[in-house]
Amino acid sequence: MYFVTAQEMYDTDQYAIERIGVEGKLLMENAGRAVANHMELFVSDQKRIAILIGKGNNGGDGFVIARTLLQKGYDVEVIVCASPSEIKGDAAYHRDVFRNSGFPFISYEEIENLEHALKEKDVVVDAMLGIGVKGAIRPPYNQLISFVNQFEGEVISVDLPSGVPADEGLEVDQAVQADRTIVIQFPKVSAFLEHTAAYYGRWEVVDIGLPSTVIQSKKTQKRVWKKQDVSTTLPTRGAFSHKGKHGKGLVIGGAVAMPGSIAMTSRAALRAGAGLLTVATVQENITALASTVVEATYTTLPSEGGYISDIGSVDFSYDAIAMGMGMGRHTGAETILQVALEQTQGILLIDADGLYALKGILSSLKGRHNPTILTPHPGEMATLLNVSIPELLHQPFAYSKAFAEEFQAYIVLKGAFTIITTPQGNQWVTVTGNPGMAKGGSGDVLAGILLAMVMQSQSLERALCNGTWIHGYTADLLVQHQHSTYDLLASDVIEGLAQTYRALSQ
């Protein structure tokens, strides 16, 4: 499923109108009917509905929604929040169709006490402002949004909540807090941003027949990776496959004080499907690790002060190497990482303390001939970019894309919405996971899952999307059936991978 910027949505509409020949008023009719038909699934015809209609295309959709619901026998009051001269084009056409159909509407100015009028309703449909919102919300919408947010019934927004920009990098001045948003054709970028996503409430997409041709033709695209994508792309295992076919991986890390990080990464990699795994760490860790990850083999690395001091003896011919978990932030880490960047013959995944060491040698990424994967959380990504965390979270797609293209690396930006970006600038977002994962070790587990995934017979971008989706989905299954968001541990997710794989195979 694609998701789009405001401009990409405008371009798609124009393509349908100019190239395909679908009139704008027909697109509006399709949109309004699709929203109204979807509302039937969860709004009883016994509910009293108020529809607040703005001046633009969102308002035009509102007239179609109102007409469709009235024709179905719903109790609907239409409140127009704009002057007659402000409603133009296709929206004016559908206003006239609504009126000529014998249905009345009133202006918000005609209501003596709008707040009181809304309290008499069970549902408010917000069709006031659309994807063009930028900057301060002007009257009367600022007051109307305030009234809607005080409404005690259900608030349903059309396409996106009024006041929420479609794009990243924009501030929210004032916006409707929707209980549910019915998105038209494609989700907008703001549905996946931490500072705007909550306004949407629960959201679903309705298809109105717009082509995705315009989006597909662009140099880069943005898509949501869903369960169906995992089910259709996750490699199956043949009856005669053997361990060598499922990847030979290496994990490098683990200072004396932090053996748990590589233990979780290693165990997760094996649970996720790695065929063979070796752990390279300091001598002091191996006894404890060998009793925890019994299926792995081990390589002893020299240490100084409890940290790895040299990796020159490592065999770098593995299919994929994950490095940095529990490695520690010490003066020798940068030199060690530089060796790995230069010597690794396959895929190199850098996580945790490895990302801290990478900061001073970023240019080394450009010289690699094999894929490099970085798996930062927002704090680590902000450090690599020399920006603040709020700046990063305000436009994570743009920052990730620019970094991936410049340094030719795959970026997995972890968070409530995990963003996967390729060196070509294509982006995916996964939305699985829950607050129970906000604990130490979750990133180590993801690194292990991704290590296993990239060694399977699938493209690298699919491997990263599948791995991040599986990581979050496993946590979701565990919280639904066995754990809470309080007690869930990263190690629980490792053991829960079996449930996810069974669910996917059914």
From TrEMBL:
Name what cofactor the protein needs.
Mg(2+); K(+)
Describe the location of the YjeF C-terminal domain by residue ranges.
226-504
Q: Which domain of life is it from?
A: Bacteria
Per UniProt, the keywords (alphabetical) are: ATP-binding, Isomerase, Lyase, Metal-binding, Multifunctional enzyme, NAD, NADP, Nucleotide-binding, Potassium
List, in alphabetical order, the Gene Ontology terms for molecular function in this entry.
Answer: ADP-dependent NAD(P)H-hydrate dehydratase activity; ATP binding; metal ion binding; NAD(P)HX epimerase activity
Family annotation (Gene3D superfamilies): 3.40.1190.20, YjeF N-terminal domain
Reaction(s) catalysed by this chain's protein: (6R)-NADPHX = (6S)-NADPHX; (6S)-NADHX + ADP = AMP + phosphate + NADH + H(+); (6R)-NADHX = (6S)-NADHX; (6S)-NADPHX + ADP = AMP + phosphate + NADPH + H(+)
Q: Name one GO biological process term.
A: nicotinamide nucleotide metabolic process
Domain YjeF N-terminal spans what residues?
A: 9-216
**InterPro entries, alphabetically?**
Carbohydrate_kinase_pred_CS, CARKD, Nnr, Ribokinase-like, YjeF_N_dom, YjeF_N_dom_sf
By its UniProt entry, which Pfam families does this protein fall under? Answer: Carb_kinase (PF01256), YjeF_N (PF03853)
Question: Subunit composition?
Answer: Homotetramer.
- Protein family per UniProt: In the N-terminal section; belongs to the NnrE/AIBP family. In the C-terminal section; belongs to the NnrD/CARKD family.
**Protein name stated in the entry:** Bifunctional NAD(P)H-hydrate repair enzyme
The organism that produces this protein has a lineage beginning with: Bacteria, Bacillati, Bacillota, Bacilli, Bacillales
